[in-house]
Amino acid sequence: MTGPLEGIRIVDLTTMISGPLATMTLADQGAEVIKIERPGGGDHSRQVADRRGGMAASFLNNNRGKRSVALDLKDPRGVEAALRLVEGADVFVQNFRPGVAERLGLGEEAVRGAAPDIVYASISGFGEAGDWAGRPVYDPLIQAISGLAAVQGGESGRPRLVRTILPDKVTAIQGAQAITAALLGRMRTGRGTHVRLSMLETVVAFLWASDMAGQTFVGDEAADALEPDAPAQDYVELIYRTADGFMAVSAHTDKTWAGLSRAVGRPDWLEDPRFGDVAAREVNKAARLELTQEALAGDTTDNWLARLSDEDVPCAPALSRGGMVRHPQVAAMGIVAELDHPQAGRIRQARPPARFDAALGPGRPAPRLGRDTIWALERAGYAKAEIDALIAAGVATGVQEADE
User: Fold this and answer.
1) What pTM value is reported for the model?
2) Which of the four, 11, 66, 286, 299, has the lowest number of CB atoms within 10 Å?
């Protein structure tokens, strides 16, 4: 059987979850996905625990239906080969840290040189602007900084992680939809576009639909804060208590585990066989997280952010909803926008997370009931007298307003 995207060819340079799940979704719908991986190790998700027959479940569950090509993209010949694969492709997807694709020779300009009308998609963690753009990222960090952990904590005042990697998955769904939209736009215009999407933007937009009422009306924000005295026993959720708050830290790889050990002054962790490699640290997760919590309790969040970032260890503060709105990275990316609503006044909303070459804002304000009834019926060919009759009979309700 074929899917609706049959004939669409995608060159996929993504790793871990959000990018691979997005492209797997497109593969499930019929696209041909060529996944380019580094020789030797491949996608990092190939190396994690829960394995059989040399294959990790995480990799199997996010890369179904793809073709795998192993190329060393640090070698010019590997880059040349990748660009040859791009010729004739419809979509190019990468989730490197911002700037890495360009340094490799696989930025938009280079890729569009091989395929001028290609849809170029970039998926990032914190976005492409702001001081956080180049930081390493994992799902718990996004849950923390986006306010999702605060939402999950509820009235307890202690941020908690959703017990699934929701930001990765939501970003994958949003990414697949945005790529499909870009393909539709190309079909109509003949031009490709650059789709930019970050996990942070996606989760903030996801939350705004139901959980950010207290931050919507400008000037009437609800007071909210995290409770520093909340019980700390739930550190196993990867949200750790510090001396003055909470933060997320993710040290999954050998490199980041070594960086964490240095940052907290525990070089002995590197000699402990329980933590010798990725699989061992997963098997001994409870002990690893307990030691991490003990270490992080001894200093403030800001100090840990600085020390851990110096070691390139993925980390983020666990923010309240209001704290998220005010965070410099949210401001730098323009994730939250203010606009004037004709009835509600000045309001605050998340803008659409997927960005295209043509800037898209939050769109027109949510309409009053029946605002566009008359407009829609006129577009459908109804005469004014017919519309008036429908309204008089209570079959339709609407108000005549100028289109905005």
Assistant:
1) 0.81
2) 286
User: CA 129, CA 386: separation in Å to the nearest integer?
Assistant: 52
353-381 in b/e burial notation, b at 16+ Cβ within 10 A? Answer: bbbbeeeeebeebeeeeebebbeebeeee
3-class SS letters over 67-114: EEEECCCCCHHHHHHHHHHHCCCCEEEECCCCCHHHHHCCCHHHHHHH
User: Residues 6 or more apart from 9 whose CB is under 8 A from it?
Assistant: 31, 32, 34, 88, 89, 90, 91
Average pLDDT over residues 345-371: 76
Mean pLDDT of all residues in 89-116: 97
DSSP for 127-159, written as a single string: -SSSTTTTS---HHHHHHHHSHHHHHHGGGSS-
Going by the DSSP 8-state scheme, the letter that residue 305 receives in this structure is H
Handedness of CA 55, 60, 64, 69 (dihedral sign): negative
d(CA 396, CA 109) in angstroms, rounded, equals 51
For 37, the 3-state DSSP assignment is strand
Distance CA 46, CA 61 (A): 11
Q: What is the pLDDT of residues 287-299, one digit of tens each?
A: 999 999 999 999 9
Q: How far is C-alpha 235 from the chain's CA centre? A: 23
